[in-house]
Specification:
By secondary structure, the protein is of the alpha/beta class. The protein is 39% helix and 24% strand.
């Protein structure tokens, strides 16, 4: 059994709700857990629960917050997945949809598919820069095609790389400015992290300080 959990994303300056990230969870041994394989549930089976979550959110938030969904490289380039996302975008009026790419696509893949996403107003964000998607030529190549990037502080903490965190954050903040990208800072756990997000003038903040991923209950 699968369902989507949600985690709020807030405006780092005003601390007001900016959006929600939808995170797929599977039910195993009496617990909801992160799936090991996100392609195990075909996108056509993800559309219905995501549609329900999104419509519930937008009914309760007339200010129309942004909705983020994660795709890996295989899903990003799959024609059926793209078709289902377009169907979702057309089915939900005024939906502000952002696709967070967990893996870096190739330039050829971007040339083939970005225009299609763009034509339906679907934005693209590169997830986990600095860790899962570190600075390298292939990442540098895709940045002009992105609308935003997400820097996950919790990845540095989990990997016991706290000593590298601030240097990497500073570098990626500058990269976002160079490429005119929105910047999301994830891993906000306390007031000190909130102050850090404001110091770096990030657009969006996300983390356990605001909420863990939970079922949406309105």
């Amino acid at each position: 059994m699968y369902r989507f959990f949600v985690q709020p994303q807030v405006d780092a300056i005003t601390q007001k709700l900016a959006g929600y990230e939808l995170l797929l969870r599977s039910y195993s041994h009496d617990y909801w857990v992160t799936p090991k394989d996100f392609t195990a549930l075909p996108m056509e089976q993800q559309v219905s629960p995501s549609y329900q979550e999104i419509t519930n959110i937008l009914q309760n938030h007339p200010d129309n917050p942004e909705i983020s969904l994660n795709l890996n490289r295989q899903q990003f380039t799959d024609s059926r997945t793209i078709g289902h996302l377009i169907h979702l975008k057309k089915s939900v009026k005024n939906l502000k949809l952002i696709i967070e790419l967990t893996e870096t696509p190739s330039l050829d893949e971007l040339h083939r598919y970005v225009a299609l996403y763009r034509s339906f107003g679907i934005k693209l964000s590169l997830d986990d820069v600095g860790t899962d998607n570190p600075w390298c030529p292939s990442v540098q190549d895709v940045l002009p095609f992105m609308d935003s990037i997400k820097f996950a502080m919790q990845n540095f903490r989990l990997q016991h790389r706290q000593g590298e965190l601030m240097g990497s954050l500073d570098a990626w903040r500058q990269i976002a400015d160079i490429y005119h990208l929105g910047f999301t800072l994830e891993g906000i756990e306390d007031k000190a992290d909130v102050a850090l997000a404001q110091k770096y003038n990030v657009k969006v903040a996300q983390g356990y300080y605001y909420s863990k991923p939970v079922p949406y209950c309105g």
